[in-house]
Specification:
By secondary structure, this protein is mainly alpha-helical. The protein folds into three domains: 235 residues, Leucine-rich Repeat Variant (Alpha Horseshoe), CATH 1.25.10; 130 residues, 3-Layer(aba) Sandwich (Rossmann fold); 77 residues, DNA polymerase, domain 1 (Orthogonal Bundle), CATH 1.10.150. It contains 31 helices and seven strands. The longest helix is centred in the first third of the chain and has 20 residues. The chain is globular, with a radius of gyration of 28 Å. The termini are far apart. About 6% of the residues have low confidence.
Length: 567
Amino acid sequence: MSEENAIKIIKKSLKALENMTSYNTKDAKNELQYIGDCYWNFEAYRKEVGEALAEGNAPELFIKILNNLSKYGYFKNDSVWFSAYYVFNNSWNFSDASLSFATALGDAGMVKLCSDILDSPQYRQKLEKSKNVHYLCKACLSILHNLSRSLSLNVYFRKACVVEKIKAYLEFDDFLKALTMMLIAAIIEEDQMDILKDTGTVEYLIESCEKAMRQKDRRYEGISIAELVEGLERLCINKANCKVVIDARGLETLKKILDFQDQTEQVLAIKAVWSLAFDEDYSRPILTKNTDIILALQKLVHSPNKEVRTSAQRALWVVKGNTEVTGTSKTNQKHEKHIMISYQWDIQNLVVKIKDALKECGYKIWIDLECMEGSTLQAMASAVENASTVIICITEKYKYSHNCRTEAEYAFQQNKKIVPLMMQPQYKPDGWLGMILGTKLYVDFRGQYDFQKQIPLLTKQIGSKKDSDVVTAVDIPDLGSKPGSGDAAGSQVSMMGWSRDEVQNWLENNHLQAYSINFSNFDGSTLQSFRNLRREAPEFFYNVLRNDLGFVDIVDLLKFTNAMDNL
């Protein structure tokens, strides 16, 4: 049974389904079953079959079929249900086997479809009375859990309000409860953490790990220890949850997993400890005194597995407060300063383009192009220490990367000038990343603006390359008034007489109408007084622009200050 045979079956069945106009038929059910059989008959090639399904537009086809069948009602008769069953079953199995299929399935609309089913009162009311309804809800939760592994799909989870829709399933049987907790742990936002209060989610995950360790297959309710620890680790990105993990004796559970000879489990347990160590107020002091955890990490630093070894080394470094790096290049010698670019691996192509543009401008750049996991701790620490500026490339995956967080927090600890670049549409940094960035102005590389026009804005933020060995802590760009610009008495008198409507017209004429509501109370006199602040108290002026008037995007800020110059 070869991969080639499996893909041949997949392509044939997909083509047959594409040519059908209705799917509540025996033929449709059979073709969907053939696809499902490939999961079991070609076990060694499940990932490859999943990738073939993604490439063959199966996700879009699956959504089309389910939407077609839902018009009848999934449980109208066997013809409808059997076809629907195999679509859900195939989506569940192959989204577990292939991340690319899971991502494509999410992009096709599966997040909304499954969450709407779970949010339906008619299904929840029948869940404990009907095996088919129970299966449908279980399949939807499982599919969503598989899709949650792809961080690029988080935008769909947010838009569909999935956390709010599924929390009711915490009240059902143990499997649905565990699955719901795992899913919530994977997708919950920082500002939603209150939802977890009094649910016992953290304690339940720790207890489930303990129960799973007593089973031969190391699973509890069908969920593996690796999945449980991953859920626990995701929750530990929030400081309040870190305290709950510590207080629930979670360190004892993590120590047992670190000692067990399963490298996948070890990596995830290390990352959980690593996340706890970022909480310097409560968890880190406790970790530094926990000799069992320290010794376990020290032992894993010598693991033959590279990921275990490097993860343990960096976790240990953070536990110890970023103070000990054997063989670090930090010396009394004067190093030539450089610009460090910190990024998450998935956006490397765009980051390399930015790097090349900065090099053409004459800057010396430090960037890890081999692999974010592969850079040694010593190299990273040295890169931060010898940087005049650290550029942070903001994406959601950056926030959840332990390596990226270690770099960013070390740069912050070292009082380095940080220049943020927004790289992902529809993502606003929150949590620890939002705290580090504060009110810093970012440069937008999300594709909305011309790339070449963004580079001068970036170099302005970085500052002069001639002063590269001088580290400045000022985050406000040098956008002060031009000598003599806009200071003519005639222009001031003219502006002073403006009405509120005339201020609104001025904003619109300068393509700043998006900020009109923030200036609704400004007349000419108020605008003139605000303009004077720019000269008299520039730091306060720019803080008001960012915090009160909403100018976070540097392009719009430049438009506004240039418009003031031209008054």
